[in-house]
What does this fold into?
Amino acid sequence: MVKYAKDRHYLPTHEWVKLEADEAIAGISDYAQHELGDVVYVELPEVGDTFAQGEAFATVESVKAASDVYMPMSGAILAINEELQDSPQLVNEDTFGRGWFIRFHPSQPDEYESLMDAKAYQEHCQEEAERGGS
Amino acid sequence: MSYVPNTDADRGVMLKAIGVESIEDLFRDIPDSLRYPQLSLPTSVSEPEILRELREISEYNVDLDHAPCFLGAGAYRHFVPSVVGHMVGRSEFYTAYTPYQPEVSQGTLQTIFEYQSMICALTGMDAANASHYDGATSLAEAVITAVSAARGKRRKVIVSAGVHPEYRAVVRTYTQGMKLTVIGDETDATDASVLAGMVDTDTACIIVQNPTFLGYLEEPAALRALADAVHAAGALFVVSADPISLGLFAPPVDYGADIVCGEGQALGGGLNFGGPYLGYFACKKQYVRKMAGRIVGQTVDRRGERGFVLTLSTREQHIRREKATSNICSNEALMALAAAVYLTAMGKTGLREVAELCYHKAHYAANRLSALPGYELLSERPFFKEFPLRCPRPVDEINDYLLNEWGIIGGYDLQRDYPALPNTMLVCVTEMNTKDEIDVLVEALPAMEEEA
It folds into this structure.
């Protein structure tokens, strides 16, 4: 059963972002990890790197494919999830929790409202599944 | 019966579809004069006649079975045990295509895996790929790997003048358009401390060759210090090495290499008129996902039995073309097989013996040649199987004399790449050079001076 956490927003390319005070955390959605299969490697950016919304900031490699991961909101990287280096399976096991990718400082907090909420994202995923995946 | 893929009617339909009258019309942009040049070929002859004629022409060539050879400079004549030819010539290997389907390619995959394992053992690296075209392209791939490992943020590449001049040229050609700055070989100096002084936070990697193109063995402590400086700046240390030398000297991992690559032709490959050769490539584990080329991995099937697959292929161009470190994943599988069979036949002891023979024979030659009037060693630096010899006259004159009068293939004329080294011959001696051959060379050189 694919989960859609309600306390965060989503990109059509299957990244989630959650605001915490003036910081944000991002990762990939439960739908995305289901589609990817077993994650074997996650390449993360360096602390201090800055990205614009929609720019690729990470790569996730599964037994099936390697995919870029896109920045849900513009900002500067504050921390990366070091745990993923040795335990990439956390992305499959706990994608909304310990499987987080980055913590960053959003430079344009308004961008959050332009993203899909859980309900809109769930519909988006259902449409995508009906079309036969992305 | 002739094989005709389509009928006149089919062709008529196709021509009509693209709006031309005839097939000839497709070539009308090419001037008539260039379309049917006069080839002035002789009249045809029978197969035995043409074989005889071609053999007569081929016998004008000087070949290594009949001429003593002191030419090296990156392509080396080493003994190739006959088992190498027997294995490489088997049609299962000889005609095999890329092993994309592991189910039907276990033999090919296993040979590549064994080859990779042996390259790791030789270099001390954690992982090796299935090989590249040659030593020059594998070095260029090492540069791209280093730039990729730095996520493209570092744009400077420092290359020692001790690296093969053709490899340096290929690195520059290969990385055109990548906005890299390749420096470090403006002068012939290969001093590790000078190179270390060039390293900064924009440096992706520094490249040295050991033994150098001139045959010199770099001081391990100096290389270690250079590696430390490179690592302190967050860059990678790339070493290009003659694999035969690794049978005798410390593996590059011992002095801090992150990537080790080079020409593998010496491992069971003939000189082959310059190709096919073998670019070997190995690196530390943390760069494996940035490594160019194809990798074969060992696994177990669902019954728990040993098997082999192309692994980490998500890095490769056929899945992530625009993000791949390199768009070349071809490898020299047959040459890699030759290297694996060679190393297996030689074993650790045999490879060491080959290297020792090269070392001792080259030193015997250096001692005798440098004692000749007008000849001296360029420097007293330690060397492996090649050394620069200062001569009393231009090297091409000497080589013409040696070939025409004595049937000897002389050494490499260093002035071709190092203008500051006129009259300097890079002499190469391997286990294939007999003591007699060296003694004849020692006899021939003064004879030239007497005749002159």
About this structure: The first strand of chain B starts at residue 127 and ends at 128. The two ends of chain B are 67 Å apart (CA to CA). Chain B has 13 helices and 13 strands.
